[in-house]
Amino acid sequence: MATDALLASASIILLGAVSKLLADRFGVPNVVFLLGFGILFGPEVIGLLDPSLFSDALSTIVSLAVAIIVFEGAFSLTSSRIRSASTATLRLVTLGSAITFLGLGLTIRFLLDLQWSLSFLISALLVATGPTVITPILEQTDVRENVKTTLETEGIVNDPVASVLGAVIFSAAALGERPFTRGGPVDEEIAIEFVTQLGVGVFIGILTAICVTYVLRNFSETPQNSRITAIATALISFAIADLFASEAGVVSVAVAGLLVGNADIPYEAEIEGFSGDITAIVLSVVYIILASLLRFEELVEFGLAGVAVVLIAMLVVRPLGVFLSTVRSDFTRNERLFIAAVGPRGIIPASTATLFSLQLAQANVENAESVVSVVFLVILVTVVLEAGGAPFIADRLDIVPMTILIIGGSRIGRTLAERLETRGENPVIIERDVDVVSELRADGYSVVHGNGATTAVLEKAGVEDAKMVVAATSGDDQNILACQTARTKFGVENLLAQVNDPTNADAFEDLGVRTTTPTLATVDTMDDLILRPSFFAWLSGVGEENDVTEVTVGSTSVVGSELGTIDFPDESTTVLIQRDGKYVIPKPDVVLKNGDVVTLLGTTDAVEKAVAMLSE
């Protein structure tokens, strides 16, 4: 028996590594492969992985794994990223969650004909999207930072809330003597228990965070000590909270991770990297083990009604919650569609549903097995379709931002990154100073640590998908070497460099690198203020109310048309056309050709519409 368990454990770790390799190779979140391997090697198919081998230790393994996963997700959610999240994010974790809870509860009750208690127990668990699924999706999918922050925040907040809400309904209603009905007598009891468990988790999480922050600041002298202390914090916080209140452990870990991650502690970057590696391992263990629990006959038991529940969850409830929560937000229509399309359920509902189902069965509750069956059905379909299809959905909706690499995290580099992010670009800063890297990450910037002139670091930062590389360090030698590497090794043609010594400008331009010098840039700005004060004042609003942008003509509806016949939006105009390396004044009788680069000027909304007309 011990040998079988040892072989199964080693196989799970190996399959987890293979899943990660396949995910990186095919650009699909590794959760899809983990679930597939769990089913394939579980009792239903090959039979190598039998959850019964782990006996009573299964719930403990799952609980500790969940503690590490939630802690790591909360630790990386810095206060700057939370502040950068729009009010739509807050509505998504409140209004959106309420819509999911009520909508799915009613759907399950009437389509599957389960009792009220089980219907809302299942819907409570399915509120959680969770970092265990969202994080792998976002690692494989390029979207704007505010979209990432919204999805990550939703997952981290909803995980503990769904867990506690599910536990309260489970104990107060599903196992209670009185039936759970709308407006029934257990409403007040459920509310009190929910607040109590939430409060216990928050209190222990705060207390744990205070203690570990003090220890790290005053006693940790090496990255190794800090990493071990952080992981131990996640485990002990979960265990203590769960001891006092069932399911409060998830809340405690989330609070502790959030507070410690935003505290001024030594070796923060090393802790975050180590926690990510540990999370990758425990994700493999938990997903594969839980997937091996799947029983095909239980999934097909509900027939078309079960399929209808999943479709309503994906196509009605989730989009309704997202679109109501993001009304008047700064998300584009396609970004709202992407958020609505990406709501896969993860480890918290899977693990909690498994434990609840077993206890309900022991208590002889009717339809007890339906809890795990419905939850697993929703998880399986949403993970495969939504997690697996997220990169393709993002590409189809055309919300994948082109990366702009900025080499150098100086004041110039970070200010440029901030402006690019505001305009919806995807800037990534490369910085070799560890302290600066930690500072930039704490402020919410996407940062890669290393020398931006080396091939490996450029590749890690995503230079192969970059539309531009900007060298903005204080050393001209570093800047010119970075530009040479980007061009010769990766074929990047669009290069821009900061030239600190104006006498070096010719050397850059001989390589085809556009340049700017701090001295000349300041002089040009002053000159514009003297000669063109009104136009300069207008340009100062670019990115907010006004915009100037270039677009390559590709729409068949405008190619071959005279410029004067095209009905551009009001408050936008064409100011320049570039064709075959030459500039053309945009007169009304100029005929647009495929590949022309048109410069548009106007208000932000009008320019966006004009860009769409010329490019689509």
UniProtKB/TrEMBL annotation:
Residues 401-520 form the RCK N-terminal domain. Pfam families: Na_H_Exchanger, TrkA_C, TrkA_N. Residues 536-616 form the RCK C-terminal domain. One of its GO terms (cellular component) is plasma membrane. This is Cation:proton antiporter. It comes from Haladaptatus pallidirubidus. GO terms for biological process: proton transmembrane transport. One of its GO terms (molecular function) is antiporter activity. Part of a potassium transport system. It is found in: Cell membrane. The keyword Transmembrane applies. Keywords: Antiport, Cell membrane, Ion transport, Membrane, NAD, Potassium, Potassium transport, Transmembrane, Transmembrane helix, Transport. It is a multi-pass membrane protein. PROSITE patterns: RCK_C, RCK_N. The chain crosses the membrane at residues 57-78, 90-112, 118-138, 198-216, 228-261, 273-296, 302-325, 337-358, 370-394.
